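Quarterly update, task 2.4: zinc ion-bound model.
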Amino acid sequence: MQYEAIVGLEIHVELNCLTKMFCDCPNRPGDEPNRNTCPVCLWLPGALPRFSREALEKAALACLALNCEIQKRSAFDQKVYYYPDLPKGYQLSQAHHPLARGGWLDIADEKGAPKRLRIRHIHMEEDVAKLIHELEGRTPVSLVDFNRAGAPLIEIVTEPDVRSPHEAMEFIRNLRTQIRYVGSSECSMETGTMRVDANISIREQGSSAMNTKVEVKNMNSIRHLGDAIAYEIERQKASLASGEAIVLHTRLWDPEKGVTLPMRGKFEGPCVPDPSVPEIVVTGEWIARMRALLPEMPALKAARFQRDYDLPRELASSLAGDRELSDYFEAVSRESVPPRTAAHWILTQYLPALKERQLSIAASPVTPGRFADVLRRLEADEINAASAREVLARLFDTDESPDAVIERGGFRQVSDAASLESLVEQVLGAHPTAMGDYRSGQAKALGFLIGQVMQASSGKANPKRVREILLSKLA
Ligand SMILES: [Zn+2]
């Protein structure tokens, strides 16, 4: 039997607000345990929550970045839940009246065809405390760290439109780009600012049945998300093949073993309207103001880069996919560097150099001005490409100007005819066999000879001129 997978995603995104969602405690879950607490987020009896405007604004920007419609009225409910990481016994969440509905993101499917994946709704909720299980001597203990309690979250719930691990990974990559662009969250699965759960079921190809789904959690990278979905699809196929029914439950992804394992049954408690936080009412004008705060988003920016800078589509999308990177590219291009040269050098040299040194663009000593300086000298044939790469590498470790680095390192390119001709004569004299090979029709001997001349010049000869001179001598 041919099966297809039906996957829906639930994505928790931690908003990078300064304070928690219902109190003024700092929103810094990584601080020393229980540093950032107060009666509200310790959930002491009688404490009243006060909803944060910053959380609403960051949530709204994320909703707009995901093409959702912000609801003029939304409200918090008490989601009943008994577990030590939430001692008040319920979580403030928007179960019945979410902040936004009806969004979408476009991705490319396996064959590269565009596909639109729908978002059902986005709601706001408070995070729970963190449980730490350890041994005190020989006694196992569970400790509670309330720094994360009450941290502002949004949960993005998709329609079950995903059909493969590839589509799930593409959707999450795109979602991360969009939310990073508006500055609401870093969306890192590795550090836990984004957590993705997948609801997975399978059905006979061509059927429209919605079968029992299994929830899979605990993936801490986009790669693991894909692996977990792929594993779970195969596991369900094998169950059906052996005549077992699929039952509703939650499974944990085990990255070491590469399998999903069953965990405690899902507790779905009742959900009742919360009387302590007033309904959230926003006007059309407010939504328009939020929309006006959106930056130029990646797809539009990529189209503009293609159009205005005449960049190939792939280069344009790579640059536009990261806001800081695209700003850097535009800053370099403004310094009289041809945009294609700038794009190429940023993606193939600058980015890998940053990665290697674990630097952010903001912290990099190679400012757009310094980078442009090197590229302008390359364009003017003052240095060759090999030297430009070396000068660029050195700029990461010095405050000196590119000019000074070029002078000190002796990188200035040798282009004058007399010096180059004498180098070429030397090389031809030393390699009569290669010269003979070339003349008898072996074109690749030319590459060898150019390489020899470059070496003889310690890499400083202008390779274009060397080639011209060699060709005329060999003819
Ligand atoms: Zn607090």
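Highlight for this quarter: The chain has three domains: 3-286, 296-409, 417-474.
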